[in-house]
């Protein structure tokens, strides 16, 4: 019989765009005893998590709660609940995760219209706004922080235009929530999906979402009641003309919001330990303060960029729309990017990322998110990367990278 060794993952310095390192207090929270899902103590934890999510999303929305599953489960729940088959959906795409929105919207039966941008850039909001006027979609879905290319899309003008034209705007803020401002109400975003394993620094496994009354109206119109749960069925007679029920049970936001509402109508069994992690992770985010947290991410980005540039490396993409929490480097001519990544991991215990599709083998991506976003990690990476590049015979300005980063820290 095979005897398996005890689990003992190596401590790593994780500088990828997720998953990232997790605060030990969050890991500890995950080891607490299980509570029953209707235990008042557990209900209080659910309510705390919802209240804290409203603060993190900067919204007065009633609905802010996690979908159980990775971030794409939140995306899928929002889209399957809001898109009726045949709805026209406009998707401006500037990287890999835009294509994910397209794929999910198509699976929901939408008539999808895409706008595509060369990778490394984002849209001028006017381009999207004129497409909204031209196409008159029911819904616009787009990414805020595109981790595949390291770019950030300004959303405020697009949000206001959607509101004026009575179009729902759905935003994938998986990579930005907790690291970069996401002003749900101020920007008029109707439904927003966040992620746990990026700037919130919680393990992967939940997707916090929020949506307003405009989105809720559409969801309730499509509400189908699960038999045997409610005493009265106010909604959702499937035989009614024109009724288009939400085509998923697990991702049905009308049922999920009943579960998170004071009704506590049973849907699934809440992920107890993940909810502990979410509550503790959000508590830590709010204790630091959102503005202080955004400033920390900016400070680490500035030091990292100064260091990489001084080393002689070139940064990928349009600098004017750089995503502060992901820094992309052009892999120098003739260098095997995977060999550099492997040596960073094997010799220094540092993980950085490669990219996808047209950028595979062309760039490295460095995430500075949440608990991973620290001076120690940035300096450790700059020193290690220099050593590894010298080993790979890449001409770098030896010594310059860490010194430039130290100078950047001194100047603030
Ligand atoms: C990471 C990421 C996702 C997918 O998240 P999963 O948790 O892997 O499902 C979606 N969108 C963006 C922008 C991301 O960075």
TrEMBL record:
<keyword id="KW-0663">Pyridoxal phosphate</keyword>
<dbReference type="InterPro" id="IPR015421">
    <property type="entry name" value="PyrdxlP-dep_Trfase_major"/>
</dbReference>
<dbReference type="GO" id="GO:0004760">
    <property type="term" value="F:L-serine-pyruvate transaminase activity"/>
</dbReference>
<dbReference type="GO" id="GO:0008453">
    <property type="term" value="F:alanine-glyoxylate transaminase activity"/>
</dbReference>
<dbReference type="InterPro" id="IPR015424">
    <property type="entry name" value="PyrdxlP-dep_Trfase"/>
</dbReference>
<keyword id="KW-0032">Aminotransferase</keyword>
<comment type="similarity">
    <text>Belongs to the class-V pyridoxal-phosphate-dependent aminotransferase family.</text>
</comment>
<dbReference type="InterPro" id="IPR024169">
    <property type="entry name" value="SP_NH2Trfase/AEP_transaminase"/>
</dbReference>
<dbReference type="GO" id="GO:0019265">
    <property type="term" value="P:glycine biosynthetic process, by transamination of glyoxylate"/>
</dbReference>
<feature type="domain" description="Aminotransferase class V">
    <location>
        <begin position="38"/>
        <end position="354"/>
    </location>
</feature>
<keyword id="KW-0808">Transferase</keyword>
<feature type="binding site">
    <location>
        <position position="365"/>
    </location>
    <ligand>
        <name>substrate</name>
    </ligand>
</feature>
<feature type="modified residue" description="N6-(pyridoxal phosphate)lysine">
    <location>
        <position position="198"/>
    </location>
</feature>
<dbReference type="InterPro" id="IPR015422">
    <property type="entry name" value="PyrdxlP-dep_Trfase_small"/>
</dbReference>
<dbReference type="InterPro" id="IPR000192">
    <property type="entry name" value="Aminotrans_V_dom"/>
</dbReference>
<dbReference type="Pfam" id="PF00266">
    <property type="entry name" value="Aminotran_5"/>
</dbReference>
<protein>
    <submittedName>
        <fullName>(S)-ureidoglycine-glyoxylate aminotransferase</fullName>
    </submittedName>
</protein>
<dbReference type="InterPro" id="IPR020578">
    <property type="entry name" value="Aminotrans_V_PyrdxlP_BS"/>
</dbReference>
């Amino acid at each position: 019989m095979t005897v398996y060794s005890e689990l003992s993952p190596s401590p790593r310095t994780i500088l990828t765009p997720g998953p990232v390192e997790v605060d030990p207090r969050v890991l500890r929270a995950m080891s607490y005893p299980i509570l029953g899902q209707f235990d008042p103590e557990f209900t209080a934890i659910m309510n705390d998590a919802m209240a804290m999510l409203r603060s993190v999303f900067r919204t007065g929305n009633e609905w802010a709660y996690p979908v159980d599953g990775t971030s794409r489960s939140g995306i899928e729940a929002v889209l399957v609940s809001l898109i009726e088959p045949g709805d026209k959906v406009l998707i401006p795409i500037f990287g890999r995760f835009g294509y994910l929105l397209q794929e999910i919207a198509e699976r929901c039966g939408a008539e999808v219209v895409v706008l595509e941008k060369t990778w490394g850039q984002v849209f001028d909001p006017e381009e999207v706004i004129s497409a909204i006027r031209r196409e008159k979609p029911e819904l616009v879905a787009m990414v805020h922080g595109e981790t595949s290319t390291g770019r950030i899309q300004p959303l405020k003008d697009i949000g206001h235009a959607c509101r004026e034209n009575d179009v729902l705007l759905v935003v994938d803020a998986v990579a930005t929530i907790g690291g970069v401002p996401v002003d749900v109400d101020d920007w008029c975003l109707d439904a927003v999906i966040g992620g746990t394993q990026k700037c919130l620094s919680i393990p992967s496994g939940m997707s916090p979402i929020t949506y307003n009354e405009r989105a809720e109206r559409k969801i309730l119109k499509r509400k189908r009641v699960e038999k045997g749960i409610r005493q009265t069925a106010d909604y959702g007679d499937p035989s009614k003309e024109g009724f288009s029920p939400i085509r998923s049970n697990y991702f049905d936001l009308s049922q999920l919001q009943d579960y998170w509402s004071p009704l506590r109508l049973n849907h699934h069994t809440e992920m107890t330990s993940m909810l502990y992690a979410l509550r503790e992770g959000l508590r830590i985010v709010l204790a630091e303060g959102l503005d202080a947290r955004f400033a920390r991410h900016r400070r680490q980005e500035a030091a990292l960029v100064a260091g990489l540039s001084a080393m002689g490396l070139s940064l990928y993409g349009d600098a004017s729309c750089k995503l502060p929490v992901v820094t992309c480097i052009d892999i120098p001519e003739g260098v095997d990017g995977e060999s550099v990544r492997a040596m960073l991991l094997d010799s220094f215990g540092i993980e950085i990322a490669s990219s996808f599709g047209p950028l595979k083998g062309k760039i490295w991506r460095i995430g500075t998110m949440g608990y991973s976003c620290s001076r120690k990690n940035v300096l450790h990476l700059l020193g290690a990367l220099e050593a590894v590049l010298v080993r790979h015979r890449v001409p770098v300005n030896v010594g310059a990278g860490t010194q430039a980063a130290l100078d950047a820290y001194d100047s603030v």
